[in-house]
């Protein structure tokens, strides 16, 4: 496990070296930075799904645990949107990542990616966001409501048992992690009070952007707002999937993302045969028919 000091925190970082790297103009392989979501998520969701396919396609892969999550330091306060974006900027500086980067975000990780691109447009070559939204008031209101519900429900004596009975042991373990994060930090208070970027600055993002949604996820309802702000982005829906799309259907996500990197970003990527590539259940998933719109 690697720890890097960034923005005053000890940040857990994992990296995969590019296979047979082809150097870019600055002499370095392109860099993919993978950002996970809030409370129940860690960098493991990327490590077990898309990280290896990206490295096999000659990208340097950087994954990290957000503040308060996984093995990264958990300060009691400092969980506004700007804090998460500042962490990313400081981490890239600490790792000496130079040149354009490809940002990948799961859930709120995609929102962080957009926030970084607003501040550093010249640094971002492309953004792929799964089950996510730009940092808008509508999205933050939805996230705040979910955080408040979780903070009220998860401490109840019967909560984890109910989750285990309905959704299994893995969901129960994730709920326990979320309960710990919410109890030990000011996340539920800080995030709703965040300063958000102006919509004009989001609309000014001109790099390729990909949005991927599960067809049965409530987050797919954010598509109209994301399309309004970024009309040139590509939107893809995977039928029958919910918010856990990345870990439930890693094969489908891999195929969508790699095709987009090839077609929209000009990277010479393919579909690698990777031993050990799997989802959280240990089974690689075949591609699902996805709908682009």
Concise overview:
The protein has 293 residues and is of the alpha/beta class.
Written overview of the protein:
By secondary structure, this protein is of the alpha/beta class. It is built from twelve helices and nine strands. It has a nine-stranded mixed beta sheet, sandwiched between helices. α3 crosses α4 (108-119) and α6 (159-167) runs antiparallel to α7. The chain is globular, with a radius of gyration of 18 Å. Residues 273-288 have low confidence and may be disordered.
Number of helices, counting only DSSP H or I runs of 4 residues or more: 12
Query: What sort of overall outline do the alpha carbons produce when their principal axes are compared?
Result: globular
Widest sheet, order of strands: 1-2-4-3-5-6-7-8-9
Relative helix content: 25-40%
Given helix and strand content, the structural type is alpha/beta
How many β-strands, per DSSP?
9
Rounded mean pLDDT score: 89
Global Rg = 18 Å
Order of SSEs, N→C?
A: EEEHHEHEHEHHHHHEHEHHE
Cα(first) to Cα(last) distance is 40 Å
Q: Secondary structure elements and their pairing?
A:
Blueprint (H helix, E strand, L loop, with lengths): L1 E5 L2 E8 L14 E5 L8 H4 L3 H6 L3 E5 L16 H14 L6 E6 L1 H12 L4 E7 L6 H17 L5 H9 L1 H16 L2 H4 L8 H5 L5 E6 L8 H7 L4 E5 L6 H4 L1 H14 L27 E2 L1
Parallel strand pairs: 3-4, 3-5, 5-6, 6-7, 7-8
Antiparallel strand pairs: 1-2, 2-4, 8-9
Helix pairs in contact: 3-4, 6-7
């Amino acid at each position: 496990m690697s720890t890097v000091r960034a923005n005053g925190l000890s940040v857990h970082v994992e990296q995969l070296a590019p296979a047979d790297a082809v150097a870019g103009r600055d002499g370095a392989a392109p860099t993919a930075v993978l950002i996970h979501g809030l409370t129940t998520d860690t960098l493991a969701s990327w490590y077990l799904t898309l990280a290896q396919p990206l490295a096999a396609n000659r990208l340097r892969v950087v994954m990290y645990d957000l503040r308060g999550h996984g093995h990264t330091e958990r300060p009691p306060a400092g969980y506004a949107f700007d804090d998460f974006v500042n962490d990313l900027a400081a981490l890239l500086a600490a790792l000496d990542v130079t040149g354009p980067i490809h940002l990948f975000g799961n859930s709120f990780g995609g929102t962080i990616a957009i926030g970084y691109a607003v501040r550093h447009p010249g640094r971002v070559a492309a953004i792929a966001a799964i089950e996510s939204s730009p940092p808008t008031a509508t999205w933050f209101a939805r996230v705040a409501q979910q955080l408040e519900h979780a903070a009220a429900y998860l401490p109840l004596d019967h909560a984890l048992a109910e989750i285990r009975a309905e959704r299994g042991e893995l969901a129960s373990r994730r709920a326990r992690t979320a309960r710990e994060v919410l109890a030990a930090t000011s996340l539920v208070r800080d995030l709703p009070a965040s300063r958000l970027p102006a919509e004009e600055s989001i609309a000014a993002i001109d790099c390729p952007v990909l949005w991927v949604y599960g067809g049965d996820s409530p987050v797919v309802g954010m598509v109209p707002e994301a399309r309004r702000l970024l009309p040139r982005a590509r939107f893809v829906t995977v039928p029958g999937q919910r918010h856990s799309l990345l870990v439930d259907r890693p094969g489908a996500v891999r195929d969508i993302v790699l095709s987009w990197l090839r077609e929209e970003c000009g990277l010479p990527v393919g579909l690698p045969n990777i031993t050990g590539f799997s989802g959280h259940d240990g089974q690689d998933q075949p591609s699902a028919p996805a709908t682009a719109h």
